[in-house]
Amino acid sequence: MVLGVKASSGGIQIGSGTNPVSINDYNLQSRYGNDVFTRGDTQFGAIQVSGNSASFTISRDFTNVTSSYQNIYEVGIEAYINGIPAFILRDILSSPVSVPPNGVVKVTYTIGIQA
Questions:
Q1: What pLDDT digit, counting tens, does each position of 16-54 carry?
Q2: How many CB atoms neighbour CB 107 within 10 A?
Q3: How many angstroms separate the CA atoms of 34 and 39, rounded?
Q4: Of residues 79, 82, 106, the one with CA closest to residue 90
Q5: Which domains are delineated in the chain?
Q6: First to last CA, the chain
Q7: I need a labelling partner for 81 at 20 to 30 A (CA). Which of 13, 69, 87, 93 fits?
C-alpha cells in the first residue's frame, strides 16, 4: 500500500543551502518555494521485512518551473506532530543536483530499522 502526503504539507523538502548539518538545525537553510520547484505528493512505499530488519521508502517529485537550471544542495524531511511542523532530517548532498528548466527530479529516502 502506498500513502500520499499532499504537496502543501510536510514530507521531503529541497533547498539551496550549503551550511554543514548541525545538531541545531530545525529547517533547511534555504528551502525552495513553489515559484522555483513545484512539489508532487510525498509517497510512502510498503514496508519490506527481511529477518530482523525492516525498511520503507519515502519519495517525492519536484519540477523546476523556472527558465534556468537550479541546483539542489540540501534535502530533508518535515513531519507534523500533533499538528506542529517538525523538521526531522536534513542532509547536504556531496555534489549538487542540477535540474534543467521543466526538469523533474525524484528524491527518495530509504528508512530502515533493525531489531
A1: 999 999 988 888 999 999 999 999 998 999 999 999 999
A2: 21
A3: 7
A4: 79
A5: 3-114 (2.60.40)
A6: 23
A7: 93
